[in-house]
UniProtKB/TrEMBL annotation:
Protein's UniProt keywords contain Signal: yes
Listed name of the protein: Lipoprotein
Signal sequence range: 1-20
Superkingdom of source: Bacteria
Keywords per UniProt: Signal
């Protein structure tokens, strides 16, 4: 391909890759239709209520939880949580023991000392900050539109950025749904930040 042909083709390639950003950057901001997929298990109904409340609070008028827009015009935000189990204390001890055994086998006194007194894992540091063991959230959010212009974009959810958005809680709050509410709020805030970063979308009047 010649340089001239490549120069002519580049704007077309860029245009093909930005329909989501073009639509989501419009003002007023388009409304997103929320769908939630959470892991099966005890307390799922309460967890879903916590997530819905958090998304309504953070997204405000930018969120439609009743799917009122016609299907071709609807922009779906499908949040799929794959795992939300906390890391156990036994996992942390096992990891540290494994590091120590590896250092002994390698004949590395420095490695042994580091594994014994070195810094904790990122997760354990957050446990110390929060006062509880938060869920290690994995999953993704899908931004989807079937009408013209159509698009399908994925936002990956990683545990640590979500956990860092959570706040410390007292014992009473931890025992009365506070951890689930913090988790839901942190996920909503993380997705909101990813939407702004990748597509320039912010809720109306944000």
């Amino acid at each position: 391909m010649t340089s001239k042909a490549l120069i002519l083709l580049t704007p077309l390639l860029l245009a093909c890759g930005r329909p989501a950003a073009d639509v989501l950057r419009q003002q007023p901001a388009p409304v997103l239709s929320l769908e939630l997929s959470l892991p099966e298990g005890p307390g799922q109904a309460e967890l879903k209520r916590a997530y819905l409340a958090a998304f309504r609070e953070r997204f405000g008028r930018g969120l439609d939880t009743e799917a009122t827009a016609p299907a071709p015009e609807r922009i779906q935000l499908i949040v799929m949580i794959g795992s939300r189990s906390p890391h156990s204390e036994s996992d942390a001890r096992r990891d540290r023991t494994a590091d120590q055994l590896t250092s002994v086998a390698a004949g590395s006194p420095f490695g042994l000392i580091h594994s014994a007194v070195g810094p904790k894992s990122n997760y354990e540091q957050q446990v110390d900050r929060l006062g509880y063991r938060p869920g290690s959230i994995t999953g993704q959010a899908l931004v989807l539109r079937t009408g013209k212009p159509s698009f399908q974009e994925y936002l990956r959810l990683d545990p640590l950025p979500i956990i860092r958005r959570m706040h410390p809680l007292g014992e009473e709050a931890r025992n009365h749904g506070g951890i689930e509410a913090e988790e839901a709020d942190a996920v909503a805030r993380e997705i909101l930040a990813l939407l702004k970063e990748k597509f320039g979308w912010v809720p109306p009047n944000a």
